[in-house]
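Lab manual, section 2.4: Encoding a predicted structure.

Procedure: take the sequence of the chain (751 residues), apply the prediction step described in section 2.3, and record the output as structure tokens. A sample record is shown.
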Amino acid sequence: MGLMNIKGEVVLQSDERAVKWFIKAAEQGEARSQAILGIMYEKGKGVPQSDEEAVKWYRKAADQGNAHAQYNLGWMYEKGRGVFQSNEGAVTWYTKAAEQGYSQAQFYMGLLYYEGKVVLQSDEEAVIWYKKAAEQGNAVAQSDLGWMHANGRGVVVNDEEAVKWFRKAADQGYPVAQYNLGWMYNTGRGVKQSNEEAVKWYTKSADQGNADAQFELKMMYYDGRGVPQSDKEAFRWYKISAAQGNANAQYNLGLIYANGRGVNQSDEEAIKWYRKAADQENAYAQVNLGWMYQEGKGVPQSDEEAVKWYRKAADQGYANGQSNLGVMYSKGRGVPQSDDEAVKWCREAADQGNANAQYNLGWMYANGRGVPQSDEEAIKWYKKSAEQGHADAQNTLGGMYESGRGVFQSNEGAATWYRRAAEQSHAMAQNNLGKMYQDGRGVLQSDEEAVKWYRKAAEQGNAAAQLKLEIMYQKDREVSPSDEKAVILYTTPAEKGNTNAQLDLGVTYENGRGVTQSSEEAVTWDTESAEQEDANAQYNLGLMYKSGRGVNQSDEEAIKWYYKAAEKGHARAQYNLGWMFENGRGVPQSNEEAVRWYTKSAEQGEVQAQARLGFMHVMGRGVSQSDEEAAMWYRKAAEQGDAQAQANIGWMYENGQGLLQSNEEAVKWYKKSAEQGDVQAQARLGFMYAMGKQQIKDMQMRKLTLESCMQKDKESPNLMKKLSNGTKKQQSKEMLVAKITLDGCMKMDEA
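Recorded output:
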């Protein structure tokens, strides 16, 4: 009768009447009524809420062997509600319920053993209890058991077994399992890789509000994997996830608005979403918000506000926040100037491997600011930064080798570091490298190479390089000055047939520097030079025909000139010729010919050719499929700083494809790519940090929020639930998501 009153069957629903009848039955020893009466008192339904009364009735039912009551009584002991808190009492009653086959108790015992909460931590015991519950159809236990198999926790890694349990839970509609199953299809673990199946399961999970699945769907739509490419649909899923309060999605939404990708660029919208994430203690958003205040973008400029947000991130141990805070102290912006504080914060970040901080700390030692002056210490920190690709550090290190400060003087060492920075378009380094070639120091003397690097620096406005170009030209060296003076100096020798002058005059007209822009004039001078067999001019002419600038567009003519330059060994022309063959532009499509030309170009160090050749090998296009060859070429491109190649080599390390599996190497390359803004690398890096797939020193990157013991967290954007060596991801209402690394996103000026 009591149950009928609760459910409203036959009689009108009434908690008070239900309690009346439950009491009558309970007082006669009916265990089920006693258990239900305990729930009524615990929840305050039909009676005044009373933990003590709840415990009283749970105990009466539990003593009669009612498993549900035993489980509930264990929970009361664990939480100290209505009784003195007692872990031993909790475990005793949980165990009694679990041993009777009560699946929720079995699942919870597994959870306790996994976390080492109340009991000694044991993955093996966790698996035993998860399996008992899973075999009874408990969806959460099935999902957790799948995770244990996927990660080799308490069992040997078995992706097929993981997929089996994920599928059982997913078929019951459990959103975390649906997400995990989608991830397995996405990565091809335990199943044949299928973007379509990944999208199917991500969608099921996302429709139930799973923010991680929503994030993954966004990536699928952005990339057009398993679904038609759609920035609009990707953005929609991002907004849904962000609107649920997902801090990671909010942060990334801020990035989207800041960069204007797929939306109208808006600093104000970027600020709005950065602030939402920052208010949830997302350190990455805090740094970006600080930078917006520092630059006055979307908000009134305020160094004080910038410092406030940098400090919040720094206090969480985030290296970018620490580095930027150090710079603010060094410059006295928003805080009283303090070299000691600058050194303190730069060192904190530098010790975590932050390249900007390492460079700044080197500068502090070189100049004796906040520390005793020491060229040796300066070299140490400059080198750490330079080896991570920091162009300023590379150029400065080149200067130290050239002058012999803190190291044995070495022109070769100087040229090496100048080149690394110059290849990253560092204007000062390009000028310095040009001088090394001009003087023949550390490299073979070459006016042509000197001109090449002076020109690159001059085009970026480097006054020293511009002056050197003019001086070299006036001395009849192969060079070209700039703007109006350039036209005057180029024209006479160009008309006399000087191929370098003709080439430079063509570039001047194409860019409209010192003359009215005219692609037609550019073609005229390029043709003059190209017909004298100048490879650079032939390459330029190929570009003009391919794009139809200054001439009628003609792929066939483009091929003709690319071929002439490529036959002379012009690496860029070889790459473009390969691209034309791959895409069937102006020639019959041929992957084999594409590979042939890509190889010629790649062997000369052309980074795009190396990256494309890696793709051809991994796909088996024009060559026999070979992951090992793909990895070799991706690595060559990655070592030259190509962001996509860095992401690809990271993926190959992560998955052990073509080389030995290494999470550490994967993180290393994802980080290099992510620092250049590669979105996929940023997402994969967030995934790696979230799942603890390497031992991470930065504990902030491992911080996982634990919520209710009965629900799951929803960590990282790419998270296959709980793939972490860190804390157990429980089923929780919300999460503090793992951060996407963007160490290079918000660079500060040197200290």
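Check your result against the sample. The domain at 390-479 is CATH 1.25.40.10 (Serine Threonine Protein Phosphatase 5, Tetratricopeptide repeat).
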